[in-house]
Design a protein that fits this description.
The complex is a heterodimer. Chain A is 32% helix and 20% strand. Chain A is α/β, with parallel strands linked by helices. Chain B has a single domain, classed as Aconitase, domain 4 (Alpha-Beta Barrel), CATH 3.20.19.10. In chain B, helix 4 (94-102) links the parallel strand 3 and strand 4. Classes of the chains: A alpha/beta, B alpha/beta.
């Protein structure tokens, strides 16, 4: 019987199996941010265990509320900053250099095929786009990760999602993952790795694969995962060129991280997405999804483009293409948060920021901020937000607010019209 | 070991997420105790009033996929500082479940039939729960009705409950 990529990664990292269903794996990277890490730090200090297993394998960023909005968030940043200095954690990204964790860490080349990664953040599943096993964990798992470089997991059961056909114009990775979550439900992949394969995934950019993997957790998935290929190597090349003679050699090395043809899966789903329409959520669960055409005309108060799901350069390019030469409706406000400073700068150089600003968008610094209702675009009671983020839970972007999840293209078209609008109208699509 | 017995809070809904258990705006707190007043503040559940319904409760019984969404351990902590150390459900989101055991708390599965029976028999009544960790049984008692339900607490889960959490266990073993 063959093995899945996740099983192979576990086999290569297993250091103990204290119980039949429990594996202790060695970690290649522990990512930290200022919301879930400070309590781990203060707890380690209280236990007189203020140590780190390897400062080169710990990466930290202030991203959720930045710049600090009040004394409490300033204190959280300070605890993380002081800790990073105290332990010589060189890869610490403070104001001016900081971006949304799941965008900036891949961008810095910290994620490699075959890696095991944890972070105190549920959307850590994003990094599986590189052929890594990457799981969100709580503060206690993070604390042990920081201290010992290990984490416990159950056996990595895998569900395979084979995406075939061709995505129609105006339909993106976001629409695909919303569709999949709708099909399997918010706990459809609980305790499972979601493996994405098929020609649609093979043709996707790393940005799109990250969008796909980012929302694995919204179906309960432990990690998203894609097989590393030449697209992965191209993305990583600036960081790995000293390790390999050529891209071909890197590809050969990384090709070990793939699933065997006879691997055992919990379930295999095959979706031909050739007729998929742009999708949008209604209600308060990410599996409550409809085609945009069924929700057209729904009044919106704010459009938000950004986050670890859809705040990368590809997303900004797509939204800007829809917005170019147009202005957003007077009945709503638009907020853009490029996910990292590098993305922001690229968007400036490409003239995208001009397009957003001329359309009437407020452009904020990179931050998670509004996605979880913490800063930079929180909703008022009764307001609705068309958002490129990943969660539409009750109160997520502000108490009493409603969130409609959608692609950057749909969000941009919605901004222009003031109501939920099918972006294909603006792109000369179907 | 923590204490797991006491009055029951019934939450008759599936997919209760961690944003509902503790909203993100309170994640700026850097002590667990500070979360106490905000437990289940945003829960969408008809007839539920967090200000009056939580007080004095020690055990939560709910439906399925409890704790989905964010990885925030603030969700178990918000329960813990309100003296609720045990949640029983048909199933849980992975991260929430692990967080509970990592804190030495119980997030324990019971069959759908058992959960249905608990709601049918006890919901709406002033119900007392007795958890026997040794025997792995949950006994519910209200008025003159008493029923016992068996659950599984094995392997790593049991080790974490007995070690009162993962930090102590990991420091000893790795």
């Amino acid at each position: 019987m063959g093995k899945t990529i996740a099983q192979k990664i576990f086999d290569a990292h297993q250091i103990d199996k204290p119980f039949e269903d429990t594996t202790i794996v060695k970690l290649d990277a522990v990512f930290c941010h200022e919301i879930t890490t400070p309590i781990a730090i203060t707890d380690l200090m209280a236990r007189d265990m203020d140590r780190v297993f390897d400062p080169t394998k710990i990466k930290a960023v202030i991203d959720h509320v930045t710049p600090a909005k009040d004394s409490k968030t300033a204190e959280q940043g300070k605890i993380l900053r002081d800790w990073a200095r105290r332990h010589q954690i060189k890869d610490f990204f403070d104001i001016g250099r900081n971006g949304v964790c799941h965008a900036i860490f891949p961008e810095k080349g910290f994620v490699r095929p075959g890696y095991t990664i944890i972070m105190g953040d549920s959307h850590t599943c994003t990094h599986g786009a590189f052929g890594a096993f990457a799981a969100g964990v709580g503060t206690t798992d993070l604390e042990v990760g920081i201290l010992k470089g290990v984490c416990s997991f159950k056996e990595p059961k895998t569900m395979k999602f084979e995406l075939t056909g061709q995505l129609p114009k105006g339909v993106y990775a976001k629409d695909a993952i919303l569709y999949i979550i709708n099909q399997i439900g918010v706990n459809g992949a609980t305790n499972c790795v979601m493996e994405f394969a098929g020609n649609i995934v093979e043709e996707m950019s790393m940005e799109s694969r990250m969008t796909l993997c980012n929302m694995a957790i919204e179906a309960g998935g432990t990690s998203g995962i894609c097989y590393p290929d030449i697209t992965t190597v191209d993305y990583l090349w600036p960081f790995i060129q000293d390790e390999f003679d050529s891209k071909e050699q890197a590809l050969e090395e990384y090709s070990q991280w793939t699933s065997d043809a006879d691997a055992k899966y919990e379930a295999v789903y095959t979706y031909d997405l050739s007729d998929l329409e742009p999708m949008v959520t209604f209600g308060f669960k990410p599996d409550q999804v409809k085609p945009v055409t069924k929700m057209e005309g729904t009044k919106i108060d704010q459009v938000y483009i950004g986050s670890c799901t859809n705040g990368r350069i590809e997303d900004l390019r797509i939204a800007a293409q829809v917005l170019k030469g147009k202005t957003i409706s007077d009945d709503l406000r638009g907020v853009l948060s490029p996910a990292t400073p590098a993305i922001y700068q690229m968007a400036l150089k490409e003239g995208l920021i001009d397009i957003f600003m001329e359309a009437g968008f407020c452009v904020t610094n990179p931050t998670c901020g509004a996605c979880l209702g913490m800063s930079n675009g929180v909703l008022a009671e009764g307001e609705a937000c068309a958002s490129t983020t990943n969660r539409n839970f009750n109160g997520r972007m502000g108490r009493g607010g409603m969130v409609h999840l959608m692609s950057p293209a749909t969000a941009a078209a919605t901004a222009i019209e003031g109501v939920i609008t099918n972006s294909t109208l603006f792109e000369g699509g179907q | 070991m923590k204490s797991f017995s006491g009055k029951v809070l019934f939450l008759d809904r599936s997919d209760i997420n961690t944003d509902e258990i503790i909203p993100a705006k309170y994640l700026t707190e850097i002590t667990k105790e500070a979360l106490k007043p905000y437990l289940l503040e945003d829960l969408k559940l008809d007839g539920f009033n967090p200000n009056s319904d939580i007080k004095g409760k020690k055990v939560v019984i709910t439906r399925s996929n409890f704790g989905c969404g964010s990885s925030r351990e603030h969700a178990p902590w918000a329960l813990e500082v309100n003296d609720i150390n045990a949640v029983f459900a048909v199933n849980f989101a992975r991260i929430f479940r692990q967080n509970m055991y990592n804190c030495g708390m119980l997030a324990t599965e019971l069959s759908e039939a058992n959960i249905d029976d608990m709601f049918d028999t006890f919901s709406g009544k002033d119900t007392e729960a007795f958890v026997d960790i040794e025997k792995a049984t949950l006994t519910l008692k209200a008025e003159n009705i008493q029923k016992e339900y068996a659950f599984k607490l094995e392997g790593f889960d049991r080790a974490l409950v007995e070690a009162e959490g993962w930090v102590g266990y990991a420091d000893t073993n790795y």
